[in-house]
Design a protein that fits this description.
Elements: E1 10-14, E2 19-23, E3 29-33, H1 36-46, E4 52-60, H2 64-71, E5 82-85, E6 91-96, E7 102-107, H3 115-119, E8 126-130, H4 139-148, E9 152-156, E10 162-164, E11 170-172, H5 178-182, E12 187-191, H6 192-199, H7 205-215, E13 221-225, E14 231-237, E15 240-246, H8 260-275, H9 278-292, H10 303-311, E16 321-325
Length: 326
């Protein structure tokens, strides 16, 4: 593997930028753009200095002007990997029954990224693969990328577990190739529902450790997010497995949870590139995702203020956590 100091200091983000229509449980509605846009706004604001951020995505021609205008507002983005295609952009319609329970309909379809787009980022320090549509990168292209990239791969498995009916409605399903996909990840993220779907067990430290040991041969770190309960992290430490549970911050009022998983992964990466500490990065990501739910429109949130607040915290502000080796 190439030494880190010989790589370009850049982060690649592979996924899809959705047109989002969000209908909340209280009856309010939000219209905008999401998907990997949540990753990009966080990484552009919070990543260490000297790092560029490279989105790799296809954008439908019907939304290209609006999306490119949004991307132009973010610092340090390199946009050569964004491809405009003559298709209808993905449009995600989310209807929340409560803060956690929702239905999803996906209209439009831009498809997965191309090999030519991926060639631009094989020298990236870290590559985030965020499954927004579930088909953002094909299995063949993912294997090619794993073989050719020098950096680490962080994978948010998320919508890879979602099928799509003819009317666009999404449904949970266990993809037959899930192991082949996850085996390409150094760090894997999923929520507890997705974990239980793949593993067949209730999400906890013991089942997480067993899943990492027996099912994920290459992956060295598994993160399972648990909404308002925070997350747990399972790491390979030599021949042992270390499990850490991190509690979420208390939130006075939950307004919108859309994009929390995307914000978590970006918050993790922004901190991990500074610290190389997976637990510190998971704490930072948990705080950021908890902070997000208080906003109607996260893209208007002051990420600089969040960073300043976290940087000034004392030991008494550190999230509750527990750790044990298995």
């Amino acid at each position: 593997m190439t030494n880190m100091d010989k790589r370009n200091r850049k982060i690649a983000v592979i996924g899809t930028i959705n047109h989002d229509t969000v209908r909340r449980a209280d009856g309010s509605r939000h219209e905008g753009y999401g998907g990997i846009l949540y990753n990009l706004v966080v990484l552009s604001a919070l990543s260490p200095s000297g790092i560029s951020v490279c989105p790799i995505a296809k954008v439908g021609g019907d939304c290209s002007r609006q999306i490119l205008n949004r991307l132009a507002q973010f610092a340090r983005l390199e946009l050569q990997g964004v491809s405009i295609v003559a298709k209808t952009n993905n449009h995600c319609i989310l209807r929340y029954r409560d803060e956690a329970d929702k239905t999803e309909i996906l209209k439009g379809w831009v498809g997965g990224v191309s090999r030519r787009q991926l060639q631009r980022v094989v020298d990236a320090e870290l590559i985030l693969i965020n499954f927004i549509s579930g088909a953002d990168i094909s299995g063949r292209n993912l294997l090619w990328l794993r073989d050719h990239c020098d950096g680490e791969i962080y994978m948010d498995f998320h919508s890879r577990t979602l099928g799509r009916r003819r009317d666009g409605s999404r449904f949970l399903r266990r993809p037959i190739d899930w192991k082949e996909y996850l085996d390409c990840a150094d760090i894997a993220q999923m929520n507890e529902l997705e974990f239980e779907l793949l593993s067949g067990h209730k999400a906890d430290e013991i089942s997480g450790a067993d899943f990492l040991k027996r099912q994920l041969g290459r992956t060295r770190c598994l993160i399972v997010t648990r909404g308002s309960q925070g997350c747990f992290v399972v790491q390979r430490i030599g021949r042992a497995l270390r499990c850490t549970t991190i509690a979420a911050s208390r939130v006075a009022r939950v307004i919108d949870t859309t994009g929390c998983g995307d914000i978590f992964s970006a918050g993790f990466i922004a901190n991990y590139l500074k610290t190389r500490d997976e637990i510190a990065a998971a704490r930072h990501a948990t705080k950021l995702a908890s902070w997000r739910v208080s906003f109607n429109d996260f893209f208007n949130a002051d990420l600089a203020a969040f960073s300043k607040k976290v940087g000034s915290e004392t030991s008494g502000d550190i999230l509750r956590s527990s750790q044990r080796d298995i």
